[in-house]
Write a structure and sequence with these properties.
Shape: elongated
Number of helices: 7
Structural class: alpha+beta
Number of strands: 10
Distance between the termini: 29 Å
Helix content: 40-55%
Strand content: 15-25%
Number of domains: 2
Largest sheet: 5 strands, antiparallel
Length: 247
């Protein structure tokens, strides 16, 4: 809960900062604050979706990132135009009604990038200082709702239409949430070593560059993920909690 309030305060201050920038463009403070709030969805989307896109295959990264940025910028521009239409109660829009700076894609992209990076940096700071709580994850296994302490999850294995959650004390849970979604949820401290394996680095006992050993199980490292695995650092805390859908 504490982390939630800290992040909410950050985004409030980010909106306020954008509003102050827009005040310099001769907008009233009320209009500037409203426009700053309208830009928040694009900032948040950039923060959470671009890192997920960069985790995909190399051939798809650049194209999807460009498409995503263009969609977000177009959405922001439409929201800005809509607000001006509502504010001025006009039925026809003309470019002169909006300050040209607000329609500049570079200006909008810079604002989103700075706000998203600030969110990321603050999240990392809170994680390193033990503020990223709680540390459990809720999911469905065998038609039953389960809650696990994330540190008890050793690795996740993809098996056709199911994923198997391997936990301490020999526990195995079956779930239909794709391993890619688990990767998004169990972000910090977990690494995708193979298309079929997502591993909790704190449970890795050895790593020979070709495989990692978890609970005496040797899990293969794919060529695609080898560099990322070798450069990863074991992290024992800082997990997130999000309910997962599944069977």
């Amino acid at each position: 809960m504490k982390r939630f309030f800290i992040m909410a305060l950050y985004w409030f201050l980010a909106s306020l900062t954008v509003a102050l920038i827009l005040v310099s463009l001769d907008y009233s403070f009320g209009d500037a604050l409203m426009l700053g709030v309208l830009l928040l969805p694009g900032c948040l989307a950039s923060r959470f979706f671009i890192p997920k896109i960069t985790a995909e295959k190399k051939g798809q990264k650049a194209f999807r990132i460009i498409c995503f940025i263009l969609v977000v910028l177009l959405t922001d521009v439409l929201l800005i135009i809509w607000y001006h239409l509502i504010r001025q109660r006009m039925s026809i829009y003309t470019p002169a009604d909006v300050d040209p700076m607000l329609l500049n894609p570079v200006f909008l992209a810079v604002i989103m990038a700075i706000a998203a990076y600030g969110d990321h940096a603050l999240s990392e700071y809170l994680r390193r200082n033990g503020q990223n709580v709680p540390q459990t994850v809720t999911f469905t296994s065998e038609y039953r709702k389960m809650t696990l302490v994330i540190s008890e999850i050793m690795y996740i294995e993809s098996r056709d239409t199911e994923v198997w959650i391997h936990a301490t004390e020999g526990r195995i849970f079956r779930n239909r949430t794709p391993i890619s979604q688990w990767q998004n949820i169990l972000d910090v401290g977990f690494v995708r070593i193979h298309r079929s394996y997502l591993v909790n680095l704190s449970h890795v006992s050895s790593n020979d560059g070709e495989s990692v050993t978890v609970n005496d199980e040797h899990l293969p490292i794919s060529r695609k993920n080898k560099e990322k695995v070798l450069s990863s650092v074991v992290q024992d805390d800082g997990f997130s909690r999000t309910p997962l859908s599944g069977r």
